[in-house]
Amino acid sequence: MKNLFKSVIFIAIFIFLYYGFSYLLLPKENIKEFGLIKTSEYEILGEAKNSVDAIVVGDSLVYSSVIPMEIYGKYGYTVFDCAEAAFILPDAYDYYKVAMESQKPKVAILGGNMFFRNTRKRKWYVKYERALKKAMPLLNYHNNWKNVLFSDYGIMSIQKGYKLNKTIKSGQFLDYMKENDKEYVMIESNLEYLKKFVDLAKEYNTKLIIIGFPSQNSWNHQKDKKFNELSKELGFTFINLNKYDLNINWETDTKDKGGHLNYFGALKASNVIGNILKDTNLLVDHRGDKNYKLWDTAYLRYKEEVEK
Amino acid sequence: MHSVLSKYYNYFFLIVIVFYNLFPKKIRPYVLLLSSLLFFYLLSGWRVLFILITIITIYLSTLWMKKIDDKKNIELNSCNVDDKKSIKEKYKRQKRLVLILCLIINVFFLFIFKYLKFFTININLLLDLFNAGYEFNYLKLIAPIGISFYTLQALSYLFDVYNGKIEADKNFFRVALFMAFFPSIMEGPITRYSDTAENLFEGNKITYQNLCFGLQRILWGLFKKIVIADRLNILVKTVFSGYMEYSGPVIFLGALSYTIMLYMDFSGAMDVVCGIGNIFNVNVPENFKQPFFSKNISEFWTRWHISLGTWFKDYIYYPTSLSKPMKKMTNNLRKLLGNHYGPLLSGTVALLVVWLLNGLWHGAGWTYILFGLYHFVMISIGNITRTPFNKLYVKLNIQNSKILKGLQIIKTVFLVILGELIFRAETVGSAFIMIKKIFTNFKVSSWEVSSLGLDVPDLFILIVALIAIFVISVLREKGISVREKLANKNIVFRWFIYYLLIFSIIVFGAFGPGYAPVDPIYADF
Predict the structure, then answer these.
(1) Count of A-B CB contacts under 8 Å
(2) All structural domains of chain B with their residue ranges
(3) What is d(CA A289, CA A296) in angstroms, rounded to the nearest whole number?
């Protein structure tokens, strides 16, 4: 009994210290408004209010393809990946709402692939990852000790939602976008969600762009055709990167034989995304702006991390 | 690649711990055995068959040997004194036959999975050299996890029974559990039957004290691995992959970092294994004993990967040096070179066999063979020069000098670092280039230091963590048990230390973007 009591006390102190450290190391721009758990669940809440120019909502194709810091380094636009593996639309929409509310971005980019996912249920590993993310914010932000102890700038997210992965697992070049006569039928409820995404963008006066991020497994001609039709019908811009020559080398630029880009492929895709954002003529270059000093510092930290 | 420190392993271990106490004492050993085989299956799939074959062949062979011994004893009891020698010889031959048969089966699997490709490639190179116009295809085989460890463990049991050191165990499950106990299956240590089998099969309950004691040890292992080894991995990878760009001092720094990384990773894994042993109340032998306080390479190998060193000593070195031809050679050399150098030279031959096999055990590659030969040369030089040097120290009256001891330790550490450089190098050629640069290229450019991948905070944490490790190693070297000392402190201090360790791992651990965990070097064996 004595031992049980001691164990309970030990665990209680551990939890207290754990969340104490989490509070110290989590970006806390919005903690007061949204709380510690919600801030750790939605990484974008770590950013100062209305400081993000463009949000990118989507699944693993987003966090594998878009490197916000590369875009910042080259164009000076502040971009944030609001992405989760196998993101199901209800969860993605929740994140989208949180991001819109806290940032009021000028541009919202959606990864088209999540509208093909034929499930309303979270996969087991997504449930596990989400629970872990919520319960263990410190694991995601523990490296912020460097900023606390060794920098005047304080706490910041460095990768801005991007998941750095330099693994190379070569794939072969496949003609996966080859034209055919097949038709893609979108699940009715997914179409409803797409309309909700479009409506919310209109509500916030945000330009909505849906992008097909490079993946040999996820995209094909009929899906591309479907989104082209929908873009005209619902009034959003659709750009399918799978149809353009991004100079992706499927032998070196993929981490899983063509399913997702690795860091080297993401560098190429991010350059194009930066160009797409530039073409909107809605964004300004924040580099050197004293209000965006944290982004300049994050960029330097990002460079250190990727060069390791 | 799987390691004792992988997530997969941790989940499995937690599940076993949670359910273990629910079973009655008599059933617990079987729970451990089933869990171990299931664990093996989860990691190696159908290759679990190979460990089962090893268990069965070892079990049957040792029982067969016991039967031969029993027969021999019956015959000896009823025979004339004159016949005793021939009877002993007859049964010894039979036992040897069983031993060889079992050896062939088990070494065959080890050879096929680990060395066939290496030998085929080299034979093809030879054929190509002689323009034979033919080459052998080699099979791409994935070895069962821990095959190098469990094969040596099995052979130690086989040899011990053969030599009459222990009796063959009739309990198949006890033999099986000794062979397959999951914590030590991937990275050792290579335990002896007489040390662990009984203890393992007792099925002791997990108690609160054991659990706490074990978890402390596990935490210490995780600290070494996650805070130090994984952090150094960045620097090591950078230097070893781009050694052509770097100067001698930076290459040396890379080799030093690799040596520390290897020690932290492997000894950290051993801490986890011992910690799990503590939890199940099983004595897992220590595999490291402050190796960097060794005064020479021989001593180093009695403190580093101890279970492997003693295995080679007991089952290769002594049998080779005490074999009939070697005894004959020793006698001849004794007459020729005297009582010191005569036996030393014949011992050196046995040493060569040991280090060639030791090198090969570490991996099928020329760098590993060179690694073995390097240690053979260093140990042999040490053996030859030890007596004259000791005489010199006595003459100079510095035999007890702390400065001398310090210098000897520095020399040993330097030689170990060069050895580990060979171990880590991609090819023998690159190892030679790197060593040459260490001794000839001293000009460090400023970009070299900034390109190593570690920032100032990383270096700060490394220095603090290494100082902590050093202080604890010094205390242990002085025979002070830090854990016992800690256990005697009040609860506030104890818990403060535990939380400090836990949060050091969580906050300062080298994981997340920019870090990559060390490939578990020994887990691939």
Answers:
(1) 55
(2) 22-204, 205-288+427-525, 294-399
(3) 9
> Per DSSP, what are the bridge partners of residue A79?
A54
In this predicted structure, the answer to whether residue A90 has a pLDDT above a threshold of 60 is: yes
Whole-angstrom Cα distance, residue A43 to residue A160? 8
| Nearest beta carbon to residue A149 from set B457, B499, B514 | B457
The CA distances from residue B226 to A238, B10, B261, B505, B508, in Å, are 44, 14, 10, 7, 8
Provide the token pair at A250.
Answer: 């499927």
Inter-chain touch A142–B509, beta carbons under 8 Å? yes
Rg (CA), chain B: 25
Q: What is the DSSP letter of A108?
A: E
Tell me whether residues B513 and A159 touch, CB distance under 8 A: yes
Q: Which two tokens stand for residue A64?
A: 């594998």
B184: Cβ contacts below 8 Å, ≥ 6 apart: B149, B191, B273, B284
Taken in order of first residue, the domains within chain A and their CATH numbers are 2-307 (3.40.50.1110)
Does any CB of chain A come closer than 8 Å to the CB of residue B492? no
Write out the two tokens for B68: 């031969």
Sign of the alpha-carbon dihedral angle for B491, B493, B497, B500: positive
Q: Does a cis peptide bond (omega within 30 degrees of 0) precede residue A105? A: no
CB-side exposure of B153: number of CA atoms within 13 Å? Answer: 29
Q: Which two tokens stand for residue A207?
A: 């330009």
Q: Is B291 in CB contact (< 8 Å) with chain A? A: no
Q: Most B CBs within 10 Å: which of A143, A152, A165, as the mutation test of the B interface? A: A143
Q: Which amino acid is at A139?
A: L
Tokens 């989490």 identify what position? A22
Query: Which chain B residue has its CA at the smallest distance from A6's CA?
Result: B491
* Minimum-distance CB partner of B495 among A10, A304, A305: A10
Question: Do the interacting molecules here have an ipTM over 0.90?
Answer: no
Would you state the torsion angle of the CA atoms of residues B168, B174, B175, B180, taken in this order, to the nearest 10 degrees? -160
Three-class SS of residue B250?
A: helix
A109 token code pair: 């980019």
**Would you state the pLDDT for residue B1?**
46
Chain A residues in contact with B498 (beta carbon < 8 A): 10
| pLDDT at A244 (0 to 100) | 84
- pLDDT, residue B6, reads 61
Structure-derived torsion over alpha carbons of residues B42, B43, B49, B55, reported in degrees to the nearest 10: -100
Nearest partner of B34 among B182, B170, B150, B172, judged by Cα: B182
Chain A residues in contact with chain B using a Cβ-Cβ cutoff of 8 Å: 3, 7, 10, 13-14, 17-18, 21, 25, 138-140, 142-143, 145-146, 149-150, 158-159, 163-164, 304-308
- pLDDT tens string A248-304: 899 999 998 899 999 999 999 999 999 999 999 999 999 999 889 889 988 988 888
Whole-Å CA distances, B407 to B293, B294, B414, B471: 11, 11, 10, 19
Residue B248's pLDDT is what? 94
Q: How many CB atoms lie within 10 A of CB B324?
A: 7
Residue B74, amino acid: I
